[in-house]
Write a structure and sequence with these properties.
Blueprint lengths: L30 H7 L2 H4 L3 H17 L5 H19 L12 H13 L12 H37 L4 E6 L2 E7 H26 L1 E2 L15 H8 L3 E2 L3 H6 L2 H28 L6 E2 L18 H25 L13 H21 L4 E2 L1 H9 L5 H10 L4 H18 L8 H7 L7 H4 L2 H7 L8 H17 L3
Parallel strand pairs: 3-4
Antiparallel strand pairs: 1-2, 5-6
Helix pairs in contact: 3-4, 3-6, 3-8, 4-5, 6-7, 6-12, 6-19, 7-10, 7-19, 10-11, 10-12, 11-12, 14-15
The protein binds arginine.
Family: In the N-terminal section; belongs to the lyase 1 family. Argininosuccinate lyase subfamily.
InterPro entries: Arg_succ_lyase_C (IPR029419), Argininosuccinate_lyase (IPR009049), Fumarase/histidase_N (IPR024083), Fumarate_lyase_CS (IPR020557), Fumarate_lyase_fam (IPR000362), Fumarate_lyase_N (IPR022761), L-Aspartase-like (IPR008948)
Protein name: Argininosuccinate lyase
């Protein structure tokens, strides 16, 4: 991933370096201050949104009669030509022009002459940058949602295939009860589905147009804000200009949702890392998702999950950077807000990359069913089933718990599983135990018995997978 801020922002000798706001200044900006205050190194990433916003603004200015049609046409042509230049890599970003907005505007004026100077009518960089960031984040959310859908679909496919596969379910990382591997995968699906829901909700508040708020107080031009919103696909326009230019809640909301999604990916990573270890051996990851060691020839390391687990911290950091950035700011716009972009872009790239890696990796995961089954047989995972059996024979649950506890201790001393104890030994713990108890003590019997909505019975897992598939189809997956 090459980030725009890794590109060099060198000077273009062809452009006259006249500041677009130079009028009231007596001396040039200190060279270091110029570089220190510039955001062009990272906000050039917003060029598409900036140009789209400017075109919509120009068309609206023509519609309300502030620009003549020919003027608007020249501006739109000029902006489209600049877009092509940038995409072709034929555009030198100039630090002296500070940011993406003034780089593009200066180039426009350079290209089409004085008409270009009319574009900024009724607009400020304050509402311009808020618009650009909202447009950019909206696009990013859509790409993230698409990757989330791909990952969720992969989980549902795998869960359906593995509905009958038994694995140990854990509490305290101790074997607790047998569960379906498909059930475990659908637990991950639920976590990620909440993440998708949250992002859809955040997107509603992102998709509001600030343009028309100008610097902070609105503008005296008769702008048609609804027309700009319509052209850019916004659901509506902001209601308060002071709020619109200073609000970055939508970035923080996104970073919160992104942090939760990364936390989920990190938990999934942790399990994948455990499961690929020799001690568990539950799954294999194909070689293409792993790397080796430069010294230990036998090693195959689960790098992708490890990196995702590690990258989670970056996104939490991005969230805290934004919360802290905003906490002391008076209304309305402050230059502090320029600091919103790098954490936002970092979180977008990190989440998108992590989701992409997971969406590619999950369908390729190879379960080792024998190992999972053997692990589920350890740790007396069907002890609760024996207690439930005794309850069905009329024993109160607390007494049943005590009886099974004693049977477990006995089996432990004998070095065997509950199901391996002879019937007469089991009957020594309770006379209510009959021959049919052995069906109850099997892993499959235990799993199938939990045939309740949300339970681990394979029949339930298949039902949940089908419901998930239907929900994904409704979302157009
Ligand atoms: N580069 C600035 C930012 O990222 C754009 C807005 C600057 N506005 C201003 N009044 N200095 O926030």
């Amino acid at each position: 991933m090459i980030r725009p801020d890794e590109q060099t922002a060198d000077q273009n000798p062809d452009l006259p370096l006249v500041k677009l706001w130079g009028g009231r200044f007596d001396e040039p900006t200190d060279a270091f201050v110029e570089a220190f205050t510039a955001s062009i190194g990272f906000d050039q990433r917003l060029y598409r949104e900036d140009i789209a916003g400017s075109i919509a603004h120009a068309r609206m200015l023509a519609k309300v009669g502030v620009l003549k049609t020919e003027e608007c046409d020249k501006i739109v042509q000029g902006l489209n030509a600049i877009l092509l230049d940038i995409e072709r890599g034929d555009f030198a970003w100039v630090v002296a022009y500070e940011d993406v907005h003034m780089n593009i505007e200066a180039r426009l004026i350079d290209r089409i002459g004085d008409v270009g100077k009319k574009l900024h009518t009724g607009r400020s960089r304050n509402d311009q940058v808020a618009t650009d960031v909202r447009l950019h984040l909206r696009g990013a959310i859509d790409r993230i949602l698409a990757e989330l859908t791909r990952l969720r679909s992969g989980l549902v496919d795998l869960a359906e295939r593995e509905a009958d596969t038994v694995m140990p379910g854990f509490t305290h990382l101790q074997v607790a009860q047998p569960v379906s591997f498909g059930h475990h995968l659908l637990a991950w699906y639920e976590m990620l589905t909440r993440d998708a829901d949250r992002l859809v909700d955040v997107r509603r508040r992102v998709n509001v147009l600030p343009l028309g708020s100008a610097a902070l107080a609105g503008t005296s031009y008769p702008l048609d804000r609804a027309y700009v919103a319509e052209q850019l696909g916004f659901d509506g326009v902001s209601r308060n200009s002071l709020d619109a230019v200073s609000d970055r809640d939508f970035v923080i909301e996104f970073l919160s949702a992104a942090s939760l999604a990364m936390m989920h990916l990190s938990r999934m990573s942790e399990e994948l890392i455990l499961w690929t270890s020799a001690q568990f051996g539950f799954i294999d990851l194909p070689d293409r998702f792993c790397t080796g060691s430069s010294i230990m020839p036998q090693k195959k390391n689960p790098d992708v999950p490890e990196l995702v687990r590690g990258k989670t911290g970056r996104v939490y950091g991005d969230l805290f950077a934004l919360l802290t950035l905003m906490k002391g700011q008076p209304l309305a716009y402050n230059k502090d807000n320029q600091e919103d972009k790098e954490p936002l872009f970092d979180a977008i790239d990190t989440l998108l990359g992590s989701l992409r890696a997971f969406a590619d990796m999950i369908p390729a995961l190879q379960p080792n069913r024998d190992r999972m089954r053997a692990a589920a047989r350890q740790g007396f995972s069907t002890a609760t089933d024996l207690a439930d059996y005794l309850v069905r024979q009329g024993v109160p649950f607390r007494d049943a718990h005590e009886i099974v506890g004693r049977a477990v201790r006995h089996a432990q001393n004998a070095g065997c599983d509950l199901a391996d104890l002879p019937l007469d030994v089991l009957q020594g713990f309770s006379a209510k135990i009959g021959e049919e108890v052995f069906a109850v003590l099997t892993l499959e019997g235990s799993m199938a018995a939990r045939d309740i909505e949300g339970g681990t019975a394979p029949a339930q897992v298949r039902r949940q997978a089908a419901a998930a598939r239907a929900a994904l189809a409704e979302q157009g997956a």
